[in-house]
Amino acid sequence: MSSRERILGRVRRALADVPEDDTPYERAVVRDYLREHGGRTVEQTVDLLAENLADYRAVVHRTDADGLPGLLAGLLAARGASTVLVPPGLDEGWLAAAGVTRVADRAESTPAELDRLDSVVTACAVAVAETGTIVLDGSPDQGRRRITLVPDHHICVVRVPDQVVSSVPQALERLDAARPLTWISGPSATSDIELDRVEGVHGPRTLEVVLVG
Description:
The protein is an alpha/beta fold and about 210 residues long.
């Protein structure tokens, strides 16, 4: 008997005494909780996102569509980045002004190869203002999950206000639960029992978020 069969057997035994006319799961729990906290304008929601991103030690930049290529080129130059990992669906114009070697997202790339790259640039699926969270869903402009977990420097572009929501419930409505979702709140970090913070533990040490209006 496999582990799967054992687990499903335990589930069936646990549910054996549940009446067939019992309240379905989706109606068993009242879900009338707040969808967002307080009323904010679009501009206030974007400002809250920027504030919470910075609170999580992400570096936040703002620009418009015309200024995006120049800003990205400046950020990569300041980092000294010469090799940049690029998802297959990323807008080619975003890196038009950057004098870098673009490296494709390949399934056969090893963790060691990814670790040697200087930076990765991606878009995002949605950004949550109340929690300062960026969500990636593996779409072509975001690439495989691992490309944003191994390189030490991640630049993520968020289109505002279209990709910004106030709350997690609003974000979940936009996301496909069957996709590989990565929820990012600041650079990767952890703290020990003495609260000494260490960054870059299981993801990028530096997260830069560009809000493009």
